[in-house]
């Protein structure tokens, strides 16, 4: 809710960054998000409640987008935004399912132009600006024979994935993205620029490792990377539904003896042109081809209708799922955890519900039910309270993503996403995997969950830290944490 004169004030005080409004040619592209559900116009015509020193005459009130280029400009923008009492959102990769990077009538701090990636080759430490995508990281590291724990889709933003935890193909060996985060530079609500690490602002460092964007604008991340000079084995296998019993049997045996350097993603999908239910399986093995094919030979022998497995550079692995994760369209997701083994009757129930959705609403054919087989031991070895991330345990992730075109199907799509997840939540195969953690990965959550459900027993400490770093609750788009009335200490 800005006046024209206040917009000019932003433009005058920003040294390198651009402030754009709906009147600017770049605006329409700048508000686009990976998920159309998350797109907001950032325009309002309500009278703002602002200090008299900043209330200037204008014909209309509107929001805007700051295409940021430096932490210093973001500091200036935050000071002005807080003074004017503007709603603030931060866009990294714009990949949020539920508008966490958008605002109605406020300002968006858009980091897309802050995407540099630099490597210290002596230590294999990589410094990544907050607007970088994982493709930027993968490609830069790959040129030096290195890799870092990142997402499984490379057009995801580094910031959002990391602040929420960060699972990836290498998590079995090295843990979550936050477990490899050495430090982060953060612009606070009142404009201070601080570095959070194990030796500086330790409470903030604890909070941002799983606590999301609730504490400031993360403009830089420093990660430990690892040597990955050799190719890895990966690719997509597609099967008809009659192969489900054999696939489940293989995965149950394989997962009981899973190695840390391997993982599998299984998805119930409906690929074009038939748009009928099928099974997609993506095996991953960080090692030589002969060893990989030995581990997955029985899976391949089941007889896929398509086999895209091969040896490829690790930097290319995160592009394997891009066809199923395209920009645009409307999407709803819901997530939970589960624990092997697959029980065939349970998996059939999920497929039955998925098929029913497709038959009733053919426009949902791009949807998927995803089961991840990340080796959990390294992730679970970190104490539950060592970081804010609250979902460590000997379990695996499951996520339902319902894709569709028209907003008329919003309620239906959300209903199906939640219904299928409820089926998976009901699985109980008698193992210990669900005894720890909040049983939901925040980056796979729907967005309407209570923050206490996301952060579990870590919530109270997060609320205390929120009081220190963002007492005005300026950053409130992603499972917002209300500041605790008592401060730390």
UniProtKB/TrEMBL annotation:
Its cofactor is FAD. Residues 58-228 form the FAD-binding PCMH-type domain. The keyword Flavoprotein applies. It comes from the Eukaryota. InterPro entries: BBE, FAD-bd_PCMH, FAD-bd_PCMH-like_sf, FAD-bd_PCMH_sub1, FAD-bd_PCMH_sub2, FAD-linked_Oxidoreductase, Oxid_FAD_bind_N. GO terms for molecular function: FAD binding; oxidoreductase activity. Pfam families: BBE (PF08031), FAD_binding_4 (PF01565). Keywords: FAD, Flavoprotein, Oxidoreductase. Belongs to the oxygen-dependent FAD-linked oxidoreductase family. PANTHER family: BINDING OXIDOREDUCTASE, PUTATIVE (AFU_ORTHOLOGUE AFUA_1G17690)-RELATED, FAD-BINDING PCMH-TYPE DOMAIN-CONTAINING PROTEIN. This is FAD-binding PCMH-type domain-containing protein. It comes from Aspergillus tanneri. The lineage of its organism: Eukaryota, Fungi, Dikarya, Ascomycota, Pezizomycotina.
